[in-house]
Fold PPM-type phosphatase domain-containing protein.
Amino acid sequence: MAVTGWYNDKEGKWRVDILSQHQECGNPSEVKRLKAQHFDQDNIVLKESFTPRLLGNMQPSRAFGDDALKLTKADKQSIELAGQVKFVGEESPFTKKTVPYIDPPFMDAEPEITIRKLRGNDNEKLKFLVIATDGSEDLPGTTPENSRGRCLFEDKNSAAHLIRNRLDGDGDKKVQEMILSLGGGAARSVRDDTSVM
């Protein structure tokens, strides 16, 4: 997800410009893109635990890494034959149901390219450009509905501010510290894949 934040000194107002869409299986345009690539596979997006996921596995539809969903069958067999790794059967980690691996690869890292002149309207100044990962989707300002009235800056660094606001606790620093100090599986369920630049 990428957004810019503009501030109009004269009017004392913020404007958020959304530069990219969510690249995940809850986004209808991403689902349409996936279905067009895999028209012979009805179950390319499955709901697991009330969440749309690529083959029941991943929420993101594009990502770096996650090779198991990017390799062709021939690539997987070559790697297995070379003795480098033994791939587990194609199953959802959530339901342990077998996922048909009909027409790989399923995921890619193809970027969404947006070209914008970084000049605002009259009296506007660019205050931040944020590039965030899928774990940061609930950040204030990533959708027009979320961005209204949510520009209260406590931090000089925009990335730190957005991460702090992404944490639960409605600004309660003790709750945020507790969330940041979680370890193991609890940490993964609360702050997995959360990066902001």
